[in-house]
């Protein structure tokens, strides 16, 4: 029955139960071979294409379970009710019309384009359900203790806690989870770190790799990636150790000083015992009657 709990608050409202029952019937109809899961082919037969299939398929096993179906359908129906102009995206105005403020709007807008797509809304709804489960005292925030109860240790807690107040807000959780899932999709060899090659496979170049690599070890771990992602979403630029080293080198590099030193090195060196004759002759020269200078030495 927990699958009917659409918002993950631990209770099933009459509306959630009804929606769950209707969705269950739709699932049974769509499941043509009756194996208790939806294949991509069965999805296409129902909807005409496989759009949103991967969004529903949370565990990525290539099929949609009844739980995944119910969660997806609940989010889809909520999205359609909010999408007043039926343009298949939620504007900030439509969000405010539903919730009364724009809190969490930017957290749901994973790609930062100013609108929330069905996929982003579904991912956000599912992620917030996980937050509600972890928030055992239902105070609307996740403490370190609640985090440890959910995950076994406090790894990544501080990375998610961007404002450092010792608790994770729903917005911090959603943004952190979005970054974590992006990391997992990039980590092709599943070694819990991103190599420069994996970075280039995602972005096409290694720009920002060293900036994300905070400790300068040549790889990016989950904590570094999440911190970097959250900093960029806040308009900041992550600064890795190697980036700092390059900045220091650039600050110490002054072309004028280098040119001056180069000229000094290239100039002929005069022996310490060798007198500076030009100065000596200038000092000890005098004028003749006709005004011509005559030097002391021929």
Description:
The protein has a domain at 135-248: Recoverin, domain 1, CATH 1.10.238. Strand 3 and strand 4 (293-294) form a beta hairpin. Mean pLDDT is 81; it is low at 274-298. A two-stranded antiparallel ribbon has the order 1-2. A two-stranded antiparallel ribbon has the order 3-4. It has 298 residues and is mainly α. It is 53% helix and 3% strand. It has 16 helices and four strands. The protein has helices at residues 14-30, 40-47, 53-56, 66-82, 92-99, 105-108, 118-134, 144-151, 157-160, 170-186, 196-203, 209-212, 222-233, 241-252, 255-266, 277-283, and strands at 142-143, 167-168, 286-287, 293-294.
Number of H/I helices: 16
Mean pLDDT: 81
CATH architecture of the domain at 135-248: Orthogonal Bundle
Q: What Rg, in angstroms, do the CA atoms define?
A: 34 Å
| Total beta strand runs | 4
Terminal Cα span = 115 Å
CATH topology of the domain at 135-248: Recoverin, domain 1
Quaternary state of the chains: single chain
Question: Roughly what percent helix?
Answer: 40-55%
β-sheet strand percentage: under 5%
Task: Give the neighbour order of strands across the main sheet.
Answer: 1-2
Name of the CATH first level of the domain at 135-248: Mainly Alpha
Order of helices and strands: HHHHHHHEHHEHHHHHHHEE
Overall SS class: mainly alpha
Largest sheet: 2 strands, antiparallel
Task: Describe the structure using short key phrases.
298 residues; mainly alpha; Recoverin, domain 1; two-stranded antiparallel ribbon; 3% strand
């Amino acid at each position: 029955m927990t699958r009917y709990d659409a918002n993950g608050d631990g209770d099933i409202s009459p509306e959630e139960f009804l929606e769950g029952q209707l969705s269950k019937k739709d699932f049974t109809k769509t499941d043509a071979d009756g194996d208790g899961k939806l294949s991509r082919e069965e999805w296409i037969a129902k909807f005409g294409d496989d759009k949103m299939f991967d969004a529903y398929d949370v565990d990525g096993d290539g099929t949609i379970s009844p739980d995944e179906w119910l969660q997806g359908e609940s989010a889809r129906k909520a999205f359609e009710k909010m999408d007043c102009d039926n343009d298949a995206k939620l504007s900030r105005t439509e969000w405010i019309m539903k919730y009364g403020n724009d809190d969490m709007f930017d957290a749901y807008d994973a790609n930062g384009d100013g609108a929330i797509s069905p996929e982003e809304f579904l991912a956000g709804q599912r992620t917030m359900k996980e937050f509600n489960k972890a928030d055992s005292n239902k105070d609307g925030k996740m403490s370190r203790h609640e985090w440890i109860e959910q995950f076994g240790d406090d790894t990544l807690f501080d990375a998610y806690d961007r404002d450092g107040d010792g608790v994770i807000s729903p917005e911090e959780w959603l943004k952190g989870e979005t970054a974590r899932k992006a990391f997992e999709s990039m980590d092709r060899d599943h070694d819990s770190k991103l190599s420069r090659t994996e970075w280039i496979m995602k972005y096409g170049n290694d720009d920002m790799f060293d900036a994300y690599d905070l400790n300068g070890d040549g790889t990016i771990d989950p904590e570094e990636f999440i911190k970097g992602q959250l900093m960029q979403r806040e308009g900041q630029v992550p600064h890795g150790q190697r980036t700092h080293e390059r900045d220091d080198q650039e600050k110490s590099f002054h072309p004028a000083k280098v040119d001056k030193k180069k000229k000094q090195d290239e100039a002929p060196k005069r022996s310490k015992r060798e007198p500076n004759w030009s100065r000596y002759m200038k000092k000890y020269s005098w004028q003749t009657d006709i005004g011509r200078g005559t030097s002391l030495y021929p």
